[in-house]
Each structure stands twice: as structure tokens, then as C-alpha cells.
């Protein structure tokens, strides 16, 4: 019998050229798939750049002390008003309200940023006026960021991470270019750049909705953690608690040792920006390659390590605090991206208006940081020793790490216990375990908040019909309102378009669906969509 070659059944390995071609095809596919995110990425990045140039000195130093964190507390009080309004509503905000709020937010950020830049150019110093303008600028920038996050609601893990971390990296590139200009000029230019959000909004409407961009769901992320929505909610709550605890550490580190801002040198300023961009790239690549926890536990570990590195560098180089400030400012920037990401996860898990989750996340993150920083400034007259401050910060970092660890372990323990009870047939124990806690209700993750309103039902059905008949995003919006009984004039007013444009959209909907009256559209939505 003839011997068979040991290599006969082995698959033929691709050549180097074939591997390179396959890689290029994959990259082309990824770029085409995520190109729809470009307006959102640029919009979110520009909103952040306008804020940092006006209130954070373009990161030529860690920030502007009270002008940053004092103003943050005032701005967060105003954001809290929005949170209270949204929390008291079961219905999501109407599109017309959202659009007008965004128009006002862009204008507010641009005008206040330009005013702050004008004060710097004219060399006028009025702390009260500057803090007031900075607070209003933060309010406008925050609401603008919330809008761009809102447009990406309901998306999947990979798309969400690609969106927020690409925007974070892009903002660092823009900010680096702006920071090369003289003080005041950079702020005015950034304020002018903020106005680019107006055309970006129009461009975003012509692109694919982010939730319709394909992406792989990961079993261990915030968007699809485990098979249980209950476990995902508790995982999200644990993360929110961890963000608050780590934000306290950031508040100490950014103003070490007495709360004053730390100036950068050109080298350390560049190092910080490259670190942020590098970490963002690593997170995105890891998720594209299938890493389950890159944007969850992985980034938490990275932020804890950065906090530890900042402590070590501050202690090792007491006369060159800008070296330690590289780590603390990188940590601060990553926390911004992580909070954006978690806000999107909450929007996917909860049923309240997206502004509820983005506002709450912003208040937890910036509120904890600002309160700590302002407290550190208030204690400056006591002339605390640097050794004592380092020890306190180290202790707070240790506690925050333990808080995150205990929260995650509690999620795992609860999940295991619920699984055992389920297998044992103990339905009463399962029901008690599944009962929403006060914290879940506060964070909008309880089942009571998930009752769909008629408007939400129609939104879901219109989206399903739009996918079936390949309707554009604008046509889906027109269909949703038209099927609710809106006249074409009211549809036009609600969406901020002309009545003729609304009429043209209705005609195209009729043509694409082969339905010829409002009632036929309603009957189809009720009978053939779920």
C-alpha cells in the first residue's frame, strides 16, 4: 500500500501576498462600515475641543483651577435641571425640542467661548465674569455632546466603542493643533470651530443610523453582558459606582498637591496627547479583534494603573510635577471617553430619554471630580504636606479599586445565586432577586421604566417598516409622525423642514411601500410590524 503524505490532508496555507490582500479587504470593509459615523465623530470631537480651549487652557496645563472645576459645579447644577425635567417624563423629548436645544447649545458654547477668548486677548481679568462664562460654555458643550451621543443610541459594542474613542482621539489631534496658537486666539478659533456642528448635523441625517451599522455583540460587555438583562443592569450600576470612586482620585491628582493647575512643557504636552491616542487605538483594535472586555474591565484596569503611575511620578519628581501630570491628564481624558461609552450602554439598557442617562453620567463623573478639586483648593491655606496628600490619594485609590472589585464580585455572586435558585425551581427566590433595587430605579434600569409609550411603539414600528422598505432616516421620521395623525404642515414644523419637503417625503413613502393613504400605512404598521 502506498504511503500517503503526512501533508496531504493539511489545509493549504495562504501566501504572504494573499494574507496582505485579505487584510486590505478587511480594512476596506471596516472603513466603509464605519464611515457613517464620521459626522458624529467630528461633532462630538469639536464640542469637546471648544470646551477644552475655553475652560481648560487647551491643556497647556492640567486645567484652569476654579475656572474649570468651580465652573463645572455651576454647569452641573444646570444640567441637573435638565435631568429633573427628563426624569419626570415617561415620554421621550420630541424631536423638535431636541433640535432646538441642540441649536441653542451650539450657539451658547460658541458665543461664550468667543467671549472668554476676547477677555484673554484684551488682557481683562474678571474672575466672576470668567467663571460665569466658563459655566455657560460647559453647559453648551455638555448638551452638544449629549446630542451626539443621543444619535448613537441603541447601537452595539463595537460601533459604540469605535465612535466614542475615535472622537476622543480626534479631539486630541484638533486640540493639539489649536494649542499651538497664542492664548485667547486659540479659544476664539475653537469657538468658531464649534459652529461646524451645524452642517455636521445635516450631514449626519444623510448617513446610516449608527444602530443599523453591523457589529458583533460580545457576551461580556455592557451592551450584552451575560444572557440576563438583570446581570447587565447590575454590571452597569457597579461601573457607575466605580466611575464615581475613581473620579474622586482624579480630582486629587489633577491639582496635586494644593489644587493649583500644573503647567506642561512642550514634550510632556505631546506625550500626554500621544498616550491618549495610543490607548484609544488599542481599545478599538482589541474590540475589532474580538476582545470581550477591552472597553469594560480592561479599560478600568488601565485607568487604575495610570492613577498609580501618577502617584509614583509625583513622588519621584517633586520638582517636575508636569511628568506626573501626563499620567493624571491621560487618565482624565480616558474617563471622558469611558463615560461617553457607559452613557451609550445605559441608553441601550434603559427605556428613559437618552438625555437622562448622559446627564446622570456627566454629573457623577464631573461632580465627584470637581467637588474633590474644589475641596483641595479650599484646604490650601492649611499647607498640608505633600507626603500627607500622597498618602491620602493612595488610600482613596485603594478604596476606589476595592469598591469596583467588590461591586463586580457582587454581580457575579448574585448571578450565580440566581442561577442556582432557577435550577432548583425556587421561583419566589428568583422573583426576589430580580426585584429592582432603589439604585436601579434611580438609574432608570427598572422594568417599570421600560413600559413603552404609544410614541415609542410607533417609533419602533416605523423603524421596522423603514428597514423592510429601505426608507431613508428622514422618511422613517416622517412616517412615524404621519402615522400618528400629524398633518404634513405639523410634520414639517416638528422636523424643521419645509411643508413641500414633507409632502415629497410622504409621496416617496407611498411609492416605496405601494400604499396610498395614511390609513393603509397605519393598518400595515399595526398588522405587519412588531
UniProtKB/TrEMBL annotation:
- InterPro entries attached here? Sig_transdc_resp-reg_C-effctor, Tscrpt_reg_LuxR_C, WH-like_DNA-bd_sf
**HTH luxR-type domain residues:** 464-529
Q: Does the record's keyword annotation contain Membrane?
A: yes
Transmembrane ranges? 34-59, 71-89, 101-122, 128-149, 158-181, 187-204, 235-257, 269-288, 295-317, 323-343, 355-381, 387-409
According to the lineage, what is the superkingdom? Bacteria
* A GO term, aspect molecular function: DNA binding
What keywords sit in the KW lines?
A: DNA-binding, Membrane, Transcription, Transcription regulation, Transmembrane, Transmembrane helix
Query: A GO BP term, please?
Result: regulation of DNA-templated transcription
PROSITE patterns, sorted: HTH_LUXR_2
The protein's name is Helix-turn-helix transcriptional regulator
Organism, by scientific name, is Berryella wangjianweii
Upper classification of the source organism reads: Bacteria, Bacillati, Actinomycetota, Coriobacteriia, Eggerthellales
Amino acid at each position: 500500500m502506498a504511503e500517503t503524505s503526512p501533508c496531504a490532508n493539511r489545509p493549504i496555507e495562504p501566501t504572504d501576498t494573499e494574507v496582505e490582500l485579505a487584510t486590505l479587504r478587511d480594512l476596506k470593509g471596516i472603513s466603509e462600515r464605519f464611515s457613517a459615523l464620521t459626522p458624529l465623530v467630528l461633532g462630538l470631537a469639536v464640542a469637546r475641543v471648544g470646551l477644552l480651549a475655553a475652560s481648560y487652557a487647551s491643556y497647556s496645563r492640567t486645567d484652569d483651577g476654579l475656572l474649570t472645576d468651580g465652573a463645572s459645579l455651576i454647569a452641573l447644577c444646570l444640567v441637573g435641571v435638565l435631568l429633573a425635567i427628563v426624569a419626570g417624563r415617561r415620554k421621550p423629548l420630541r424631536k423638535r425640542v431636541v433640535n432646538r436645544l441642540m441649536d441653542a447649545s451650539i450657539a451658547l458654547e460658541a458665543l461664550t467661548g468667543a467671549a472668554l477668548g476676547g477677555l484673554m486677548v484684551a488682557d481683562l481679568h474678571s474672575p466672576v465674569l470668567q467663571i460665569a462664562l466658563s459655566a455657560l460654555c460647559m453647559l453648551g458643550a455638555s448638551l452638544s455632546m449629549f446630542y451626539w451621543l443621543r444619535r448613537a443610541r441603541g447601537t452595539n459594542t463595537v460601533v459604540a466603542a469605535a465612535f466614542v474613542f475615535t472622537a476622543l482621539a480626534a479631539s486630541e489631534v484638533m486640540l493639539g493643533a489649536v494649542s499651538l496658537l497664542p492664548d485667547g486666539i486659540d479659544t476664539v478659533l475653537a469657538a468658531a470651530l464649534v459652529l461646524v456642528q451645524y452642517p455636521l448635523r445635516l450631514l449626519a441625517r444623510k448617513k446610516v443610523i449608527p444602530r443599523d451599522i453591523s457589529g458583533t455583540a460580545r457576551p461580556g460587555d455592557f451592551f450584552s453582558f451575560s444572557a440576563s438583562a438583570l446581570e447587565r443592569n447590575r454590571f452597569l450600576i457597579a461601573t457607575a459606582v466605580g466611575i464615581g470612586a475613581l473620579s474622586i482620585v482624579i480630582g486629587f491628582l489633577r491639582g496635586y498637591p494644593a489644587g493649583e493647575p500644573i503647567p506642561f512643557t512642550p514634550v510632556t504636552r505631546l506625550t500626554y496627547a500621544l498616550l491618549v491616542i495610543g490607548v484609544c487605538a488599542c481599545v478599538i483594535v482589541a474590540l475589532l479583534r474580538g476582545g470581550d472586555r477591552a472597553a469594560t474591565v480592561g479599560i478600568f484596569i488601565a485607568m487604575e494603573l495610570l492613577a498609580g503611575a501618577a502617584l509614583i511620578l509625583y513622588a519621584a519628581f517633586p520638582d517636575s510635577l508636569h511628568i506626573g501630570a501626563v499620567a493624571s491628564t491621560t487618565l482624565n481624558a480616558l474617563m471622558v471617553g469611558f463615560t461617553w461609552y457607559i452613557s451609550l450602554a445605559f441608553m441601550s439598557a434603559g427605556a428613559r430619554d437618552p438625555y437622562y442617562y448622559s446627564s446622570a453620567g456627566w454629573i457623577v463623573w464631573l461632580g465627584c471630580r470637581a467637588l474633590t478639586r474644589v475641596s483641595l483648593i479650599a484646604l490650601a491655606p492649611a499647607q498640608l504636606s505633600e507626603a500627607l496628600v500622597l498618602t491620602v490619594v493612595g488610600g482613596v485609590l485603594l478604596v476606589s479599586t476595592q469598591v469596583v472589585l467588590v461591586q463586580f464580585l457582587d454581580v457575579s455572586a448574585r448571578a450565580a445565586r440566581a442561577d442556582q435558585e432557577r435550577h432548583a425551581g425556587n421561583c419566589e427566590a428568583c422573583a426576589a432577586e430580580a426585584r429592582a433595587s432603589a439604585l436601579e430605579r434611580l438609574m432608570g434600569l427598572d422594568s417599570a421604566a421600560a413600559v413603552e409609550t404609544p410614541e415609542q411603539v410607533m417609533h419602533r414600528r416605523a423603524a421596522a417598516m423603514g428597514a423592510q422598505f429601505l426608507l431613508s432616516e428622514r422618511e422613517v421620521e416622517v412616517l412615524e409622525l404621519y402615522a400618528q395623525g400629524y398633518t404634513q404642515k405639523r410634520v414639517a414644523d416638528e422636523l424643521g423642514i419645509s411643508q413641500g419637503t414633507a409632502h415629497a417625503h410622504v409621496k416617496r413613502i407611498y411609492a416605496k411601500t405601494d400604499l396610498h393613504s395614511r390609513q393603509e400605512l397605519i393598518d400595515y404598521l399595526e398588522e405587519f410590524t412588531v
